[in-house]
Amino acid sequence: MIGGNRSSRAFFLDCRFHTWSNLPCMGVPRAYAAAGVVDGKMYVFGGCEDPNSDKWGEVFDPNTQTWDVLPKRPKEPYSSVIHESVVREEKKVFSLNEKGNGLLYIPREGIWKKGKSDAYRPRRGWHVIENVMYCCVTGGRILWCQASELEWHEPNVIKWREVMGLKDLKDTLCASKLVNYGWGLLEEQLDDLLPGHKLSNSGPNMLLFWDVHAPGKLEIFCAEISLQRRKEKGEIWGNLEWSEVVTTLVPPHPLPEHQHHCKILHSLTLNL
């Protein structure tokens, strides 16, 4: 929301040159939408004032610099407030609204499919590594499920399991404001206000970013975790390869400590 209103404006950041430029406006103003990229095109879901809008989903083609409306989604009740979206198998976009209802869009077929539900809303930072979905939740726990389980079938609830072997990291994450939720607001409020940590990957290894308060500054940590499947027990074990501060932010103006926060939007691994 900008000044209390939804916006249809879109911007492009060229990380090579650190420059911003305007994109054509979307067909409908949005807030609390989500996006995913498939075959170089950006798919945007939800965020519109009317949850039954004909333009509930749109796709942007950077080659033609145009927005196109997606086919109408199923008529089942589905909110416009999207909490998470993720691309699985590089060809399907899965989104989850604030009520925990899942929805899949398959661009190559131009069809929508019902997805599984996840009633526990504070799961954030969803990320797929080798067809396994991961997320981080309160208490410093990292959870996983098979990405193939996001499509609807009985039982209709995503089965999450904890990544084992990360107790030391869990204790560290509990010192983080964004993971611990330790200062009085409801978890749901904080999840909306402070979207929090970021999961990414470097090859088959997981990367996890989070923030920690230090006197007069905010430290951004990163940890690299190698992952091992133990199929005989149906478990995934993690091993902490390294963990350290990767950057420090000093607020330009003095603020109460609990108001210092950041949102990591994206991370990209480069070979140097």
Condensed summary:
The chain has 3 helices and 18 strands.
Please, could you describe this protein's structure?
By secondary structure, the chain is mainly beta. The protein folds into 2 domains: 1-115, Neuraminidase; 149-272, no CATH class. It is 7% helix and 43% strand. The chain has helices at 167-173, 177-180, 187-193; strands at 10-14, 19-23, 34-38, 41-45, 57-61, 66-69, 82-88, 92-97, 102-106, 111-115, 124-129, 132-137, 141-146, 161-162, 198-202, 205-214, 217-230, 235-249. The strands form 5 sheets. Strands 3-4-5-6 form a 4-stranded antiparallel β-sheet, with no helix packed on it. A 4-stranded antiparallel β-sheet has the order 7-8-9-10, with no helix packed on it. The N and C termini lie far apart (39 Å).
Throw out a few tags for this protein:
four-stranded antiparallel β-sheet; globular; 7% helix; mainly beta; Neuraminidase
Structural class: mainly beta
Termini separation comes to 39 Å
Query: What is the approximate shape?
Result: globular
Question: How much helical structure, as a percent, in the residues?
Answer: under 10%
Domain FKB95-like N-terminal Kelch: 4-246
Protein name: BnaC02g45940D protein
Pfam families: Kelch_FKB95
Organism: Brassica napus (Rape)
What is the topological layout?
Blueprint: E1 10-14, E2 19-23, E3 34-38, E4 41-45, E5 57-61, E6 66-69, E7 82-88, E8 92-97, E9 102-106, E10 111-115, E11 124-129, E12 132-137, E13 141-146, E14 161-162, H1 167-173, H2 177-180, H3 187-193, E15 198-202, E16 205-214, E17 217-230, E18 235-249
Antiparallel strand pairs: 1-2, 3-4, 4-5, 5-6, 7-8, 8-9, 9-10, 11-12, 12-13, 13-14, 15-16, 16-17, 17-18
Domain FKB95-like N-terminal Kelch: 4-246
Protein name: BnaC02g45940D protein
